[in-house]
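quick one before i forget lol
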Amino acid sequence: MIISSKTTDGRPHRCHLCKSDVSVLHLQDDGDTPCPNCGEVQAFGEDMITTVREIDSGGIESLLKIEEAEFPRKLLLDFTRVNTINSGAIYNLVQLQKAQEARSGKLVFCLVEPVVVEIFELMRLDSVFTICGDEAQGISLLV
């Protein structure tokens, strides 16, 4: 799982993985800020979009463990590596969607394989989740 974020201003932050204090610097249009201790990409806050690439069921579960104060309000999940999905992962996605709604956040899925979209449609979750074609379209839905 790779977490990538962009922010418009610098601010102190605590790494959600190793819990060390890091400083998020101003970023250009593209680029990330890795934690100096563990290398995990950092930048959370209301004004930024966080993209999770290479998501899998373990990654979805680990997202649910991020502390409330550090959780990204605008979250884009890249499903490129997901070619099937099980009930546990679906349950975690529903929980993630509920958590985002509770914090007035947004959650968008992009690059979802047709077979996974079909599973969401069969379960009528396509009306619960926001699913788009590519990362650029997902970012435009989160702005």
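fyi The radius of gyration is 15 Å.
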